Amino acid sequence: MNSGNGADDAPIRVPGITIYFWIVKILTTGAGESASDYLSANFNHAVAAAIGGLGFALALILQFRMRRYVAWTYWFAVLMVAVFGTMAADVLHGAGIPYAGSTIAFTIVLIVIFALWYRSQHTLSIHSITTARREAYYWATVIATFALGTAAGDLTASTFGWGYFTSAVVFAVAIAVVGIAFLVTQRARPPQGNQPTTAAVFTFWLAYVLTRPLGASLADWGGKPPAQSGLGYGDGTVTVIVLVAIVICVAFLAITRVDVNRGVA
Questions:
Q1: pLDDT reported for residue 92
Q2: What burial class does residue 44 get, using C-beta atoms within 10 Å of its C-beta: 0-12 exposed, 13-18 middle, 19+ buried?
Q3: Are 146 and 82 in contact (CB under 8 A)?
Q4: Sequence-distant (≥ 6) Cβ neighbours of residue 245 within 8 angstroms
Q5: Dihedral of CA 244/250/255/258: which sign?
Q6: Which range has the worst mean pLDDT, 6-15, 35-44, 80-89, 98-107?
Q7: Spatial separation of the C-alpha atoms in residues 71 and 75, rounded to whole Å
Q8: 95-104, 111-120, 169-178: lowest mean pLDDT where?
């Protein structure tokens, strides 16, 4: 649907949904968690927040200058959103708001963004991101999902007492269930033409939210000390390892262009 914000046949500004998308997405969530924790633990909180905020602003400026999907700028933006979203959730907890409260608050924020996005553009499909306005809604949604996922992961690991590894397993199982639901609904009601089904859009965003606490729980499990149910490798070490993995994956995507979104799926 053309909402008057640009041509529907303009290049899509986000990647196609492939297995590579989910791999790099989970890696960025892990890097965002460990990098944010490392900065907060080794620098003044104001300095850490400034670093995260500047990186976040720079990444979005670069991304919005693109008129099509470019792997390096897109995933740099996602990485910086991961760092910034983690800091946002941690700031609320530091202010005395419990993880349950911040999880509910970010859920409400996400619902409001979805409502505004749908009211304005009549779709929540990421395959329709062909204009700056739609991309603005998209990144607002991404920021909210990262903050929500961070709070939810901390809720299960700390408040519920599950620990990081158990939390990761639970979120992985939840994502698998969402994936099965997607396949079942797609077979029951295949998409008509180039328009994704409501179930496809809903399961995508649900899986997107769940990948945040999955990646963060895995990163915390590797970086935090055994006394906190971690393996004790350190947040800095985990950050470096995951960043190297992200660079390798994004370089592969930039060279092969296998994730260039050529239409609605």
A1: 77
A2: exposed
A3: yes
A4: 27
A5: positive
A6: 6-15
A7: 6
A8: 95-104
Strand partners, 192: 195
Residue 192 φ then ψ, to 5°: -95, 115
In the numeric block, which tokens belong to residue 178?
A: 């969402």
User: What is the spatial distance between Cα 69 and Cα 63, in angstroms, rounded to a whole number?
Assistant: 9
Provide the pLDDT for residue 1.
36
Long-range contacts of residues 1-7, Cβ cutoff 8 Å, at least 24 apart: 1/121, 1/122, 1/123, 1/128, 3/120, 3/121, 3/122, 3/133, 5/121, 5/131, 5/132, 5/133, 5/134, 6/130, 6/131, 6/132, 6/133, 7/130
> What value does the CA radius of gyration of the chain take, rounded to a whole number of Å?
18
- Could you tell me the two tokens for 161? 């007492």
The mean per-residue pLDDT over the stretch 215-227 comes to 93
How far apart CA 215 and CA 159 sit, in angstroms, is 18
The answer to whether the CB of 186 falls within 8 A of the CB of 140 is: no
Q: What's the pLDDT band for 241 if we cut at 50, 70, 90?
A: very high
Report helix, strand or coil for 231: coil
Report how far residue 77's alpha carbon sits from residue 88's, in angstroms, rounded to the nearest whole number: 16
- Encoded amino acid at 84, one letter: F
Average pLDDT over residues 181-208: 82
96 burial (CB, 10 Å; 0-12 / 13-18 / 19+) is exposed
d(CA 256, CA 249): 11
